[in-house]
Structures are given as structure tokens and as C-alpha cells.
Amino acid sequence: MTGLRRLSPGDGHDVYDMLQTIPKNENGLINNANGLSYDEFKIWLTKKQQESEQTGLVDGWKVPSTTYWLYVDGVPVGFGNLRSFLTDALKKAGGNIGYGISPEHRGKGYGNLILKLLLQKAREAGIEKALLTVHADNAASIAVALANGGVITERNDERVWIWIDTRPKD
Ligand SMILES: CC(C)(COP(=O)(O)OP(=O)(O)OC[C@H]1O[C@@H](n2cnc3c(N)ncnc32)[C@H](O)[C@@H]1OP(=O)(O)O)[C@@H](O)C(=O)NCCC(=O)NCCS
Question: How many other CB atoms are found less than 10 A from the CB of residue 10?
């Protein structure tokens, strides 16, 4: 199977192992599963699923986010997060979408693929314009966003703000 699979408490060792290869914080992408034991990971999956099903803010401040695994030929190679709405804080940093590919699978087009598939999910969730905030020195992620129709609307020394229209092109 090649495509996105939504996080579920039934996820197992293949996803756990993939998540251990992606740093805890790389270019602002947070991977809270890195460093967990397998048992802790299973608890984390349940919590993440519960949070993603909330419609309002989680714990009064956190926008619910839905996590997807990118599978290529049956192997999980990365993950993406989709937030269905933005707060003022997320407009400054965070945006709607974040993604990461396991280091051993980078440079094969999977970054481009995961964002393309996440944009389809965003559209299905009613997001017509998705915001990505990318570290200014993250050339790979900026390339991924631009390859997927991203438009840079603002930049400073630290960050680049990129909006992507998720509506189908004719
Ligand atoms: C950003 C990331 C997802 C890219 O994944 P990837 O699978 O290597 O990306 P791809 O192979 O699809 O390459 C996408 C584009 O980036 C370019 N690219 C890849 N690595 C690059 C690098 N180190 N420097 C410059 N450009 C790079 C490729 O040439 C390609 O451009 P093209 O489509 O114009 O040919 C991956 O590097 C990653 O997980 N980084 C850590 C987490 C992160 O930064 N996430 C983004 C947070 S906003």
C-alpha cells in the first residue's frame, strides 16, 4: 500500500520504529514519540487519536491535529500533521500542516508526495487555503511547499510563510 494512513491506537512496531528515526524536534517539527518505550507509544497513540477527534481547543489552547503515516509499498516512511483551523499563534508559527520523512528515506520524492496527500486531506476537511510556516534555512521543506503550489507571502530571517490553495486545478 502506498498512501496516507490515519494514526490509530492499533498502530504497531513498523510505525514505532519509523518514529524513532525522526528527531524530537527538527526544524520545528515536533516528534513526541521519539524516545518513548513501546508501551508508552501505545498510550500516546490513544491520546493523539482522542485529541484529533475534538472539535474545539484541546486543554484550552491546543488546536486538534490529525496525524497520518505515509506508507510506501507497505512501509511507513514518514508522518504528517494536519490542523483544521488556525489561531493567531499558529498564524505566526506552526500553520496548518507539518511533515517529516525518515532520514533513510529522504531525497526520493516522499516529501513532495506526503504534502500532496496532506493537501488532499486538508481539502476534504474544508481547508481551502493551508498555511505552512517553514524555517528560513529549511531549503528542502521550502522546495516541497513550492512544488505543491505554495506561494510565499511573507518572510523574515527566521521563517517563511507559505500558503497553498488546496482546491483542485482544472
Ligand atoms: C523536508 C523533508 C520532509 C523533505 O523530504 P524529502 O523526502 O527529502 O523530499 P523530496 O525528496 O520530496 O524532495 C523535495 C524537494 O526538496 C529538494 N531537497 C531535498 N533535500 C534538500 C536539501 N537538503 N536541500 C535543498 N533541497 C532539497 C529536492 O531537490 C526536491 O526538490 P524538487 O521537487 O524541486 O526536485 C525532509 O527533509 C524532512 O523530513 N526534514 C525534517 C523535518 C522538516 O524539516 N519538516 C518540515 C517542517 S516545515
Answer: 9
Model-level pTM? 0.96
Tens digits of residue pLDDT in 128-151? 999 999 999 999 999 999 999 999
Q: Is 70 in the pocket of ligand 1 (CB under 6 A)?
A: no
Q: Which amino acid is at 25?
A: N
Q: How confident is the model at residue 170 (pLDDT cuts 50, 70, 90)?
A: low
Closest Cα to atom 34, ligand 1: which residue? 143
Task: Give, rounded to a whole angstrom, the gap between the first and last alpha carbons of the chain.
Answer: 28
Q: Assess whether the C-beta atom of 101 lies below 6 angstroms from ligand 1.
A: yes
CATH number at residue 113: 3.40.630.30
- Could you give the number of structural domains in the chain? 1
Atom 40 in ligand 1: which residue has the minimum CA distance? Answer: 100
